[in-house]
């Protein structure tokens, strides 16, 4: 039993140090929802929580064995409980402090189809113009081309149908 606890402690400690110094997002367990990457909130099964649980499980089990506790079942239960508790604390730290400030962009932030805006530079026939739109509270501009090749005057409301090499294909929006 001592060997199991020692291995868990040292493997958990070594991986924690590697995760700390080299980062570990490639080890995270993410769930995909449809085609977008899942960012609904942090998972309890993140690398930091798992490594904290493993390290504390091994450390507590090893210490309890060394101080002379004789009941293997009691040592195992205390070690498991301590590991789960520490993993939960790391999850709370991750969820309430670290993830709270994570403003990573999502794939949907780049999909402009269906975005409504208005032309700031008119589109003349098959040429390009420029449209303005508001996204996440910021006014942005993008080159725009008419879907049917028709001219659209400045100030007209347009709807983005698709993007092609950074140029929006738009159609006039009618209410």
TrEMBL record:
Origin species: Paenibacillus ferrarius
Residue ranges occupied by any Membrane protein NfeD2 N-terminal transmembrane domain in the UniProt entry: 2-99
One Pfam family, short name: NfeD_TM
Transmembrane segments: 44-64, 73-95
Protein name, UniProt field: Membrane protein NfeD2 N-terminal transmembrane domain-containing protein
Key words of the record: Membrane, Transmembrane, Transmembrane helix
